[in-house]
Amino acid sequence: MATVQDLPQIRGVKNIPVEEFYSSGHRTCQGCESALVMRLMIKAAGQRTIVLGSTGCMYVANTTYYSTPWVVPWMHTQLGSAGSAATGTAAGLASMMRKGKMQEEPINVIAFCGDGGGVDMGLSALSAALQHDEYNLLVVCYDNESYANTDIQVSGSSPYGVNSTFSPPGKEIRNLNTRWKKNMAPMMAVGHPNMKYVATACASYGLDFNNKVRRALTTGGPTFIHCIDPCPKGWDYDPKYSHELGMLAIETGLWVQYEIIDGELILNGPSRAIAKGIRKRKPVEEYLMRQGRFAHFLPEDIRLFQDKIEETWENWWIPGLIPITPGQDDDSGGDTE
Ligand SMILES: Cc1ncc(C[n+]2csc(CCOP(=O)(O)OP(=O)(O)O)c2C)c(N)n1
Ligand code: SF4
Ligand SMILES: [Mg+2]
Q1: Structural domain boundaries of the chain?
Q2: Ligand 1, from 150, 152, 231: best to mutate by most atoms within 8 Å of Cβ?
Q3: How many angstroms separate the CA atoms of 133 and 208, rounded?
């Protein structure tokens, strides 16, 4: 494995680097948290970084007609290819350095994908990338809970019952999307035992996200961060509430903040306080009812959400993470006859 850069943890907001490597020149919606994820991600990673981005809002709205906010090398890759682009770039750099065609130095490789591109379409490419522990790379999945760029279609990461262009609430069927959100970060962590760093994040906790990016990049090998990103257009709320909605997702227990470092789980932020019983979860209604995408919900739909969160925290093997409960012991000694 190649060496990694020296990127120390940032102690306090006053010490966040002032340099911007994702600057003006983008056309994302006002209040777009995914744009903030990009800005914070590259602020933490710094100048000697190559960024690869799959199709989606963070490609289209960021690189329209010769304008771009990226001040570091950036390349678009196909919708399902964040994983392959990351592996290919890391392998290419390693090969060029081995052959003496470029100077030996640790260069960060970060690929990002949306939930459509990562949680759905590019899952196999991500899995392959996360299995190659000879390469240093970070994949950031920015999750605005829809195929936003093509006008808000449901993805495997969209919440139950959400109003989208593919699941409009009707008189006959109120909630067309009856799937529960995929449990992405644990799926990546459990499925790739050689991977040394997996985390969840939210741009409402910016410094926390900065430091997670740095921990991923300095851990080395393939690493993965999954962010929840409020999206004013798709979630249908006033853009000024993006920050608050991100916090509410966590304070209600719907989104759990954690890091898995070399197989060890560390809850952080409000999720840690909730798990320790220091803090109570806010009712999920406070989160749901502030978004137009859930405006059609009846009390029974809100109850269903609340029950699911309670199940996640009370009944799951690891609260908020592993939806498996230990079964009854088999006392037959292996004799199944
Ligand atoms: C193979 C392929 N299918 C469909 C599209 C059309 N398309 C472009 S962006 C996009 C939405 C991607 O959603 P997501 O990855 O969640 O990113 P977001 O737009 O939400 O930021 C789609 C379906 C495409 N570019 N490539
Ligand atoms: S649709 Fe959502 S994710 Fe896309 S640019 Fe607008 S706010 Fe950002
Ligand atoms: Mg999306």
Answers
A1: 13-297
A2: 150
A3: 25
Whether 120 is in the pocket of ligand 1, judged by its Cβ within 6 Å, is no
Rounded distance between C-alpha atoms, residue 28 and residue 61, angstroms: 5
Residues 263-306 have pLDDT tens digits of: 999 999 999 999 999 999 999 999 999 999 999 999 999 999 99
Q: Which ligand is nearest to the CA of 145?
A: 3
- State which fold the 13-297 domain adopts: Rossmann fold (3.40.50)
Checking if the pLDDT of 335 tops 70, the result is no
Name the amino acid, one letter, at 121: M
| Predicted TM-score of the model (pTM) | 0.96
pLDDT digits (tens, 9 = 90+) for 160-184: 999 999 999 999 999 999 999 999 9
- Ligand 2 atom 8 nearest Cα: 32
Q: Which two tokens stand for residue 30?
A: 């006002």
Tens of pLDDT, residues 228-242: 999 999 999 999 999
Task: Say what percent of the chain tops pLDDT 90.
Answer: 90
Tokens 């978004």 — which residue?
Answer: 291
**CA 314-247-32 angle, 5° bins:** 130
